[in-house]
Design a protein that fits this description.
By secondary structure, this protein is of the alpha+beta class. It has a single domain, classed as Immunoglobulin-like (Sandwich). It has four helices and seven strands, in the order αβααββββαββ. The chain has a four-stranded antiparallel beta sheet with strand order 4-3-6-7, with no helix packed on it. The protein has a three-stranded antiparallel beta sheet with strand order 1-2-5. The protein starts with a helix and ends in a 5-residue tail after the last strand.
Length: 155
């Protein structure tokens, strides 16, 4: 009888371990800060993110300069630690600049196996050139592309 209990326990463990999701190597989180007003009608998480982005902006002009689009990139490459420097490349197109591709890069040391990169299109850049209509994020180590994520409209 004990062997049957162990068998069921082993079967349950195997079934549950099959449900575990594999960790993604590149995750892109987007946040669109549309207005400066403090609103209690918004979801708590949205209100918290909005307050975090506006933190320290005292005047209305400072708050206006923080309006726009924010991109947080979480990357993970445990197998490549120590094999070369890491670059997170953010490429994007905006509504008023047509097909012009703008680029922004954040670099990390070769000993890092995971990290977070923040990119933003805010202030005058946002108001003059428009909303981001398409984007692509690439994770590179020692010049080699490891992973990419892109928006639906990326060419």
């Amino acid at each position: 009888m004990i062997d049957v209990k162990r068998w069921y326990l082993l079967l349950a463990v195997m079934a549950l371990s099959g449900c575990a999701a594999e960790k993604e190597g590149l995750v892109v989180k987007q946040f669109y800060l549309r207005d400066q007003a403090d609103s209690t009608s918004e979801e708590a998480l949205v209100r918290g993110e909005k307050l975090r982005r506006l933190y320290g902006a005292v005047s209305m002009q400072e708050r206006r300069e923080r309006l726009g689009q924010y991109y947080t990139v979480l990357w993970d490459d445990p197998a490549g630690a120590g094999s070369g420097p890491v670059e997170v490349l953010f490429e994007y197109q905006q509504g008023a600049t047509a097909s012009l591709v703008k680029r922004s890069v954040q670099r990390f040391s070769s000993d890092q196996s995971a990290g977070k990169a923040e990119f933003s299109v805010i202030g005058d850049n946002y108001f003059t050139h428009g909303k981001v209509i398409a984007w692509k994020v690439s994770l590179k180590r020692a010049g080699k592309v490891l992973n990419t994520r892109q928006s639906y409209l990326w060419r």
